[in-house]
From TrEMBL, chain A:
Pfam families: BPD_transp_1. One of its GO terms (cellular component) is plasma membrane. This is Phosphate transport system permease protein PstA. It is found in: Cell membrane. InterPro entries: MetI-like, MetI-like_sf, Phosphate_PstA, Phosphate_transprt_permease. Belongs to the binding-protein-dependent transport system permease family. CysTW subfamily. It comes from Micromonospora endophytica. Signal peptide: none annotated. Part of the binding-protein-dependent transport system for phosphate; probably responsible for the translocation of the substrate across the membrane.
TrEMBL record, chain B:
It comes from Micromonospora endophytica. PANTHER family: ABC TRANSPORTER I FAMILY MEMBER 17 (PTHR43423). The keyword Nucleotide-binding applies. This is Phosphate ABC transporter ATP-binding protein. Residues 1-12 have a biased composition (Polar residues). PROSITE patterns: ABC_TRANSPORTER_1, ABC_TRANSPORTER_2.
Amino acid sequence: MTATAPPVTRPAAAGPDLTRAALSGGRRLRNHLATTAIWGAVLLAVIPLALVTYTVVVKGAGVMNLSFLTGDIPNSYRRVGGGMAPAIVGTLLITGMAALMAIPLGVFGAVYLNEYGKQRPLARLIRLMADVMTGVPSIVMGLFIYISWVLLVGEQTGFAGALALACLMLPVVIRSSEEMLRLVPDELRQASMALGARKWKTTLTVVLPAAISGITSGALLAVARAAGETAPIIIVTGIVFAPNWNLFDGSNTALPAQIFRNASTSFPAAQDRAWGAALTLIVIVLGFTIIARFISSRFAIKER
Amino acid sequence: MASNDTHTTTRPSVAIHPAGTTASGTEPAGAPVMQLRDVSVYYGSYEAVRGTTMPIQQNQVTAMIGPSGCGKSTVLRALNRMNDPIPGARVSGEVSFHGQDLYARDVDPIQVRRHIGMVFQKPNPFPKSIFDNVAYGLRINGIKGRLDDHVEEALTQAALWDEVKDKLRKSALALSGGQQQRLCIARTIAVKPEVILMDEPCSALDPIATAKIEDLMVELTNDYTIVIVTHNMQQAARVSHHTAFFTAEVDEQQVRHGRLVEFSQTGKLFTNPADKRTEDYITGRFG
């Protein structure tokens, strides 16, 4: 230590008290209450989620094995064993076909609404109808397809199920995609226009890529919701006990319908199969999610 | 010209030959590449700008200055039909480009914009890579040849090549504001327009980035004609050959609209303005 001048001591009153103690008791109390309430809400929200996952995994894992995934559904609920292959095939085919119909149509619809229709009367009408359609119960959609398609072609098919699911997905895809397109800044459209791009070119090469990751997320939510629909499947696709790979010929089945049928019997073997089907369905939806995230991250441009 | 409008204070003087003109090419120095004749722009029934008559000289910088709401951006956007998509927007009078009326019935606005490009106030690069931003216009216009060479040339002309040559595949959004604006200029000149319209291109930038863009503008007049809207009078004085001063007026019906007050050589407009309103504005007594 060299001899330095003693540090200048500031008078205590020179600056405001910046410590937490300076806050009034009421404010500190409100802060604690708010923090506690937020953490409590998070816990309350996570508990049912965790419990559902835990129960399904524990109970479903009991029957889960290769033969469950590949075996036919037993003709009798009472019989032990058997599998869910027909329902897995049905879920993948029916949901896939529904997505194939609803997503392109929905995205094009959203492009019309946001890029071309804007506030025109037709666009407003479509928006209103989409909102109303979102609220239509799935069983009503099932009955609608039953009357307008199943009775027309004369048989229950997987395709009828896909039609019903597509009708359920369509409004969700339209509205969520439109929201995503609305988030694309107008400056980008103007920049493209000023370079001599036509409107469809701008939409295809600038607007859609800028919104693709949001559109994918929205479409995925719709697919996940459709994959879990039970009522329309039971009404319009019928039931099969062996895999039916043809959506256009003969009845089909899907996991939610099998969960419903097996779980509502009094036979333990059937209830076990219902748990297994539930676990399979959750894993399939998780798989859809991962694939969609991967696709949208491949399309999306990184910020850095 | 504009004889039906007694308020017209503009005397389009096509015969101006400013000293140090950089004009080259087939047309004589200072020949107008564009000409506005009694141009009014309407939004619905509202006349936003009334009776504008002025030339745009080839290979020079023409500046439009004036207070907010005087219609200078509106006039600028009328030069390449960027107002078209705005519902109710309409242009009367004549905007000619090499003698061709841009608002004639058989004119395709897409073709207009391929020859008259635009740089905006806020840098607006596409959320794509730097390379793809510059290549965008080339691709949509079906320009053949080696894309890499065209992109390098445009970025070099925009004085950005050295800063981005090692990260062409990185997102354009990672660039700084000034770099983004030069990228937007590169994107515009990549398609080789004749005229570049700039709508307050420096208002979102710091002084260093602004200086770079201004240097660039002077450089670009070798190959391009530039029209710039700016709030910054010093900027207009620094970079432009001709300046148009706009202001907002209230007419007999108490309707506010933009008017061109004075158009002349930049040196003359700033040192010896012909109109009292111009003098008040540039000396800071108004606006």
